[in-house]
């Protein structure tokens, strides 16, 4: 569905501004003549996400402005909630790859207030790349909006103005160029980024490292990637080596319940709790947690990492299951999705 400009109402205005910030962020990051394109991109993409999230929260609250504004008792003037609070409302899973991606870019944005960050290593550019694709995906999933007429697929690819593989923060010449403080901050940020990427199971929603070299060829059969346009175009996919699901996702739902209950010291969960978690956190879209064979009648399978994540969320917040149940009840108003078996 194509979106018309100038939509009425607060939600429509938030979406219009969000899309504008998104388009400007892409124009900025891919315009090599802009000296401070890294900092500017971070500001704009965070603004685009904040406005998009507020529009979603407002929509789910039946357009009640109080859902995104602090009360008059809390502040002297009308002030809307922060990006961090928006993330808490929409992505309640603290380890959601999409949420962590935005939070890290927000951190980089805040740090750029004190440092001049004119260049970044490829790990951060890969973080940016995922953020760009995540936005477009969620805009369409939440509001059915397509902006492909304004943002062609080529524009969504982050352009490098240097060789990412040659960006060595230990290089003395580079450290002099970007400043010692900036280099030290980026080295720490880079290390933490790699560690978290691995701990999350290397999801593409967190970071995408594109290693293809693109060139114009007359014969499509000679190309590594074929880009298409229009309604009949096919989306790109990540191709992975086949894995043995009996080893990577050995648990059925009853196994998950049994192991989680054994780890909760008295608190018990049911089949309904697992189905709420799967629904609210889109677990079926997390290949590191969930697997379902294409063979008809095959059972749903879960990984050990899924069990450990559930236990970790409960240990961090003992109201975790209650929060998920409440959110599931609100989601259920739009239609029945849980069927007891």
Secondary-structure element pattern, one letter each: HHHHHHHHHHEEHH
Number of strands: 2
Structural class: mainly alpha
What is the percent of helical residues?
A: 40-55%
Number of helices: 12
Low-confidence segments, given as residue ranges, are 1-6, 211-215, 227-242, 336-341
What does this structure look like?
- The chain is mainly alpha-helical and 341 residues long.
- Helices cover 49% and strands 2% of the residues.
- It has 12 helices and 2 strands; from the N terminus they run ααααααααααββαα.
- It has a two-stranded antiparallel ribbon.
- Helix 2 (37-60) crosses helix 3.
- The radius of gyration is 22 Å and the shape is globular.
- The two termini are 36 Å apart.
- 28% of the residues are buried.
Label this structure with key terms.
single chain; 341 residues; mainly alpha; two-stranded antiparallel ribbon; 12 helices; 2 strands
In brief, what are we looking at here?
The protein is mainly α and 341 residues long. 49% of the residues lie in helices and 2% in strands.
